[in-house]
């Protein structure tokens, strides 16, 4: 029996924010991270970035970030 709370999971939205991430990457959040903001902070430590998109935020893993052609 597990009382462990999974909290939130932040997964990669892919290189363009439209495709699935080829790696199906998700941020490995710290045990103490329970909110999306905290998990994203964990991700930044691992090289994740957050992009603004209309109406939402896109989470991009380090691999997909390097595939981005713009910039
Ligand atoms: Zn990715």
What can be said about this structure in brief?
The protein is α+β, with helices and mostly antiparallel strands. It has two helices and two strands; from the N terminus they run αββα. The chain has one domain.
Describe this structure in words.
By secondary structure, the protein is α+β, with helices and mostly antiparallel strands. The protein has one domain (1-65). It is built from 2 helices and 2 strands; from the N terminus they run αββα. The chain has helices spanning 36-45, 62-67, and strands spanning 49-53, 56-60. It has a two-stranded antiparallel ribbon with strand order 1-2. The termini are far apart. The mean pLDDT is 85. Bound molecules: zinc ion. Zinc ion (ZN) binds at residues 12, 14, 21, 23, 25, 61, 63-64.
Number of domains: 1
Instruction: Give the proportion of residues in helices.
Output: 10-25%
Sheet with most strands: strand arrangement: 1-2
Strand tally:
2
| Span of the ends, CA to CA | 48 Å
| Biggest beta-sheet profile | 2 strands, antiparallel
- The total count of helices amounts to 2
Q: Globular, elongated, flat, extended or rod-shaped: what is the shape?
A: globular
Bound molecules: zinc ion
Structural class: alpha+beta
Percentage of β-strand residues: 5-15%
Rounded to an integer in angstroms, the radius of gyration calculated over CA atoms is 13 Å
List the helices and strands in order. Answer: HEEH
| Global mean pLDDT | 85
């Amino acid at each position: 029996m597990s009382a462990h709370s999974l909290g939130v999971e932040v997964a990669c939205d892919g290189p363009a924010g439209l495709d699935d991430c080829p790696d199906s990457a998700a941020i490995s959040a710290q045990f103490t991270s329970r909110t999306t903001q905290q998990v994203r902070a964990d991700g930044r430590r691992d090289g994740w970035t957050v992009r603004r998109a209309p109406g939402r935020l896109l989470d991009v893993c380090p691999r997909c970030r390097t595939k981005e052609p713009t910039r």
